[in-house]
Amino acid sequence: MIKLKKIFLFLFILIMLCISGNTAESEEQPGKNPEITGINIKEVDSSSEIWIESNSLITYTLYKPSDPYKVVVELFDVGLGRFKEKMVFDKGGVMEIIPSEIDGAVRTARLEIALSVPAEIKPVHKENLLILTLSKPEPMAAEMQETPPAPPQQPAAEKNEKTTGETKPEAAPVVSGKYAGEKISLDFQEADLLHIFRLLADVSGYNIVVHPEVKGKFSMRLLNVPWDQALEIILRNYGLSKIAEGRIIRIAPTAVLSREGEEIAKAKEAEIKSGDIETRIYPINYADVDKVKSTIETAKVLTSMGFISTDRRTSSIIIKDIKEKHKEYEGLIKSLDIPTPQVSIEARIVEVTTSFTKELGVQWGALWRPAGSRTTISGLPATGSGSISNLTGSNISGNTSGYPSSNPLMVNLPAAVTSGAGGA
């Protein structure tokens, strides 16, 4: 009995020692929270490298916005560790790195890299190490300085052919016409869909709401594509759809949105059936009543409870439907019942005879002699000093004695008719 007690005591002491040892070990290594352990810039041959190290497996997203001097890297389920302040390097084409931490369901470390010169970036992922390779900026600058002189201008046809041959696929007219979002470059490595949608929300400026059933991880590398095209590709790969309402984009499985659409349609149908039915008569003033009726039926604006008929005797349309729809019918009929545009053609007949011009004529003359002057201005014979002579038939007929000229009248265009007949 005593031996059994000793054995139990020994086992109890041994268990307590094991527990205390594990506690001491856990105090020395407090869980090893995933965090960034190193950020360095290395220049290797003709390129520069940004080394990002962590004490756990790295899952990242690389985002290059339209700004060629900026690159954003997000590391999921990783903390910043001791790298919480802005780091200024100014070497290898890297000016500075601004770290920040995003709180959410999964902790995310965000690194905004500011470049001194635009450079091509290629990521290399090795478990707990992410290497971003940047092309050397110096050769690019030298190439810009030694730019050869512009070649002589080519004919328009040759120039267009050459330009077409060098056009990149992403600049195709079909793509640019369908997608109008800001062009970005993305590199995902086993990134969670929720983080990708949040990134696209930051780029687009829209508020993106994701359905709880949307889950999964995504790996993708896209270069210089519109953000809305990138979103469309992700939605297709995972059987998702979106609904845009103002500045909000709602993303959910296609089946879920389909069910919601059916439920909304059923709710509207029930609301229609519960509405008050009202019959109204709409007079038609210009259009044909049968054609107006046919147009309304073709437009499919009537509800399932609606009915339309015509009365040709009074040129009216009768519509029976819920009260709320009649305002729509009134506006539609007002747009259809308008007069047909017409053209007015007017003609006037003028009768002209060959003798019309012979019935018109004029004879006009005068005589004027100032008092005490020997000057005479006349077209008719003088009867006295300083006065205008009488216009007599004998004078008009051509008596030219005493006139300063052989033509006694200033205007002599008589009508070819007899005296007193309208022109003599």
Topology, element by element:
Blueprint (H helix, E strand, L loop, with lengths): L1 H27 L7 E9 L2 E8 L5 E5 L5 E7 L10 E5 L2 E9 L5 E8 L5 E6 L2 E7 L1 H9 L10 H11 L6 H6 L4 E10 H12 L2 E4 L6 E10 H11 L2 E6 L2 E6 H20 L3 E7 L5 H11 L7 E5 L4 E7 L3 H11 L25 E3 L2 E2 L8 E2 L14 H4 L14 E3 L11
Parallel strand pairs: 11-14
Antiparallel strand pairs: 1-2, 2-9, 3-4, 3-10, 4-7, 5-6, 6-7, 8-9, 10-12, 13-14, 15-17, 16-17, 18-21, 19-20
Commentary on this structure:
With 424 residues, this protein is α+β, with helices and mostly antiparallel strands. It folds into three domains: 36-138 and 179-253, Immunoglobulin-like (Sandwich); 277-336, Ribosomal Protein S8, Chain: A, domain 1 (2-Layer Sandwich); 361-424, no CATH class. Helix content is 29%, strand content 30%. The chain is built from ten helices and 21 strands. It has helices spanning 2-28, 137-145, 156-166, 173-178, 193-204, 227-237, 254-273, 289-299, 326-336, 393-396, and strands at residues 36-44, 47-54, 60-64, 70-76, 87-91, 94-102, 108-115, 121-126, 129-135, 183-192, 207-210, 217-226, 240-245, 248-253, 277-283, 307-311, 316-322, 362-364, 367-368, 377-378, 411-413. It has a seven-stranded antiparallel β-sheet. Strands 1-2-9-8 form a four-stranded antiparallel β-sheet, with no helix packed on it. Residues 21-31, 137-150, 154-176 and 382-406 have low confidence and may be disordered.
